[in-house]
Design a protein that fits this description.
With about 375 residues, the chain is an alpha+beta fold. The protein has helices spanning about 180-190, 195-200, 295-325, 340-355, and strands at about 1-5, 30-35, 45-50, 55-60, 65-70, 85-90, 90-95, 105, 110, 130, 135, 140-145, 170-180, 210-220, 225-230, 245-250, 255-265, 265-280, 280-290, 330, 365-370. A hairpin with a 2-residue loop joins strand 18 (about 265-280) and strand 19 (about 280-290).
Amino acid sequence: MTPADSAPVSPKSPEAKAPPTAFGKGFVLDAWYFVALSRDVAPASLKRHELLGEPVLIGRTRAGQVYAMRDICPHRAAPLSAGRLVEKPGEGETIECCYHGWRFRPDGVCAAIPSLVEDQPYEADRIRVRSYPVRESQGMVFVWMASDPRTAPDPDHEPPLFPGVVGGGAKMVEWMDFDAHVDHAVVGLMDPAHGPYVHQQWWWRSETSMHEKAKAFEPREHGFAMVRHAPSSNSRAYKILGGAPATEISFRLPGYRWEHIQVGEKQVLALTCLTPRTETKTTITQIFWSDHWVFAIARPFLRMGVIAFLKQDGGMVNLQNEGLRYDPALIWIDDADKQAKWYQQLKREWIKSRAEGRPFVNPVKAATLRWKS
């Protein structure tokens, strides 16, 4: 048994003020975070999000361009998301502040200050609102959160590509806010031992069905995977897929966990995106794709199950917070907690490699883990 992983942070790190390598503290930066499905970002829309404690406006121009900028007008601090998208001659499409009408291009550059008169030669384009790199990929919108947004270079990698995004758009999406730091949310999702105690549905599994399991793991880009295998015999929900399903479960920094199931030529992808809003709130978004015929029939029941799981996990987070507010030392055991320990090692190495200006070296080694659940 070992205490919760922690390590000192380099004084050169931009996060040195908040010991980001300690479990439950700080965030993984210089990384892509999921913010929305593409279909939920409508033309001319302006929506406020909170990412890693920062207010971020996500919008789309009428021409179809998605953009992200800090949701604070630099004039008098009104949220830009409370304004509107306008188009003026010679300016193109701009975001107009609701307070004094200052207008900003999607790249954050100020295009106009309406209160100025002709003999007041103020250079509006010298004013900028912080903009964030944004990408649309596989029907999702991702925002790059840099370690130093004032001098941030272009992203040095693209958002992850997930296997099994098939059958058109997402078939089902559910989300819930957890009152937890993203670290606790991540390890809660990858914890293999809590299922029989927290998720006690007749169609899933129960404490009485527990038995020993052995699963092979291997490192993957920015994370690790439980290599493809047949589902456990006490996981009853897989039986509705028929055939001989084979599943692979992967995790990748900063907070993506997905299960890719293959049944012959058909596929199911269950993707969980963890989006930290603040130090104490994380949004869990679960997205499903499938070209399997049974998905259309079972979707209403699957939705009920997903909602039940999220509520049960959220309830456990609230109970856990009762103990965490006393800042106790946490105990991690092998092998049931090995994935949680890997996550902490990955986070530490990511932050350290960025601070030292060197390539990331995955600390995870191939292993077979054994536990009961």
